[in-house]
Amino acid sequence: MKNIFKYSMLLVAATMMLASCSDDRDSNPTLKTPDSFVLNTPAYASQAIDLYNSETVNLTWSQPDYGGFPVAASYTVELSGTNDWTISNVEANADESGEMVPTYYIVENSYPTCEASIDAKDINKALIVMMGYTENNVPATQKLYARVKANAVGANEVVSNVVELLVSPFYIELKPADPVLWYMVGNCIGSSDWNVNDGVGVGLIPLLPEPGADFDKDGNGSLVYAGYFPEGGQFKFIRDPGSWNTQMNFENIDENTAGVTDEDGDNHNIGIPEDGYYKITMNTVKNTISIVKLDGTYTEHTTITMPGGYNDWNAAEGNPMTAMGKRENTQTHDWYLDVTYSENTELKFANGSWDVNWGATDFPLGIGTNGGPNIPVKAGTYRVYFNDILGLYYFQATE
After folding, report:
1. CA trace torsion 245, 92, 79, 66 (10° rounding)
2. Last residue of a domain, which of 280, 297, 314?
3. Contact of 15 with 7, CB cutoff 8 Å
4. Is residue 271 part of a domain?
């Protein structure tokens, strides 16, 4: 009888445990992916937004219903001038033929909450690309369609409804991104103390854009440099002055490159085994570096000037440039100057006289040749770089 009682109690307990587990399952919410969620129609939707005089366009939306409980999601905003969501700007930018035109634009920022403030000028640029506006062909008003995508861990992507807005666009000339320069730092570069905070031209020497090379929308492409390196010199490449965060080192060097060594083990400094002149080519799209030793010797100039129409072509005093990284027992072949031209002009680079001068017809980037033509310069504020081994010049706009 006792055994029957014990077995009965065990059966009751087991039944209670099963019921309890069932209750727990019922109380635990399950993550679900909703079909859509609501992008709110702004109160201003029927009024034309002046993109030229507006700072931002603001949107809000409700959180998707992932099963009745809050879920951390990340949101992206997409815009279209035609309500066509076929080709994104990301896909079009990746098209090597350059012929693909985006039908919608993915706003670069992502948002952790249910609201977004989108730069009005960025919207205008996106419409110029999508709609193909020209200077004399910009509509007074343009329909703008917006939608939002939500992404949460464990759930599929969710797309909101589409909201129609009205904007007044304006024309600006779109130009490719300026090339992003990279810099050398080391015991044979600039101030020779590996100090990335010493500044460009002091502790850091830049590689300049290669004339004729293509640069992508982020400013990546082919950079070049030529200079003298002493035996035993070591250096590295960094992208951002003042920071070691983004580097290229020995591991990126082309396997066919001769005349350099991997120094200091895991640090991968680039080492120079013998004195000489070297040309460096860096491709920041492919993340490769080529270092080639040059034959012959090159004149070390003590002065480089920029004579032109603005100073009656005075070669002796025409905007003298500053030598970069002059050190004992080394050579200087790199120069820079911060300058503003209030109107268009022409100029050349010279060695303080007209005995040696460099000119070309290209601007803002080119290879000057001795006795070459005048360089046409547009009005503006620039940091001008010049490498006298290559004859390479670059007017980097600073305003």
Report:
1. -70
2. 297
3. no
4. yes
Specify the CATH number for the domain of residue 354. Answer: 2.60.40.3620
174, 128 in Cβ contact below 8 A?
Answer: yes
Which pLDDT value is given to residue 328? 59
Using one digit for the tens of pLDDT, what is the confidence trace for 347-394?
999 999 999 999 999 999 999 999 999 999 999 999 999 999 999 999
Mean per-residue pLDDT, 56-78: 90
User: Do 127 and 167 form a contact (C-beta atoms < 8 A)?
Assistant: yes
Number of domains in the chain: 3
Residues 182 and 111 in one domain: no
Q: What CA–CA distance (Å, rounded) separates 292 from 148?
A: 51
Q: CA-CA distance, 72 to 283, in Å (whole number)?
A: 39
Tell the burial category of 245 from Cβ atoms under 10 Å away from its Cβ (0-12, 13-18, 19+). exposed
Residue 206: inside a domain: yes
Least confident range from 179-183, 289-293, 367-371: namely 289-293
Residue 92 lies in domain: 48-168
Q: Do 327 and 394 belong together in one domain?
A: yes
Determine, yes or no, domain membership for 371. Answer: yes
| 121 three-class SS | helix
CATH code (residue 161): 2.60.40.10
User: In the chain, how long is the greatest CA-to-CA distance?
Assistant: 122
User: Is residue 3 predicted with pLDDT exceeding 60?
Assistant: no
- Which pTM was predicted? 0.63
* Non-local CB neighbours of 385 within 8 Å, separated by 6+ positions: 206, 208, 334, 335, 336, 392, 393, 394, 396
- Alpha-carbon torsion (306, 307, 311, 316), positive or negative: positive
Residue 13 lies in a domain: no
Residues 72 and 121 in one domain: yes
pLDDT of residue 1 exceeding 60, the answer is no
Residue partners of 362: CB distance under 8 A and separation at least 6: 211, 375
- Residues 394 and 399: their CA atoms lie apart, in Å, by 15
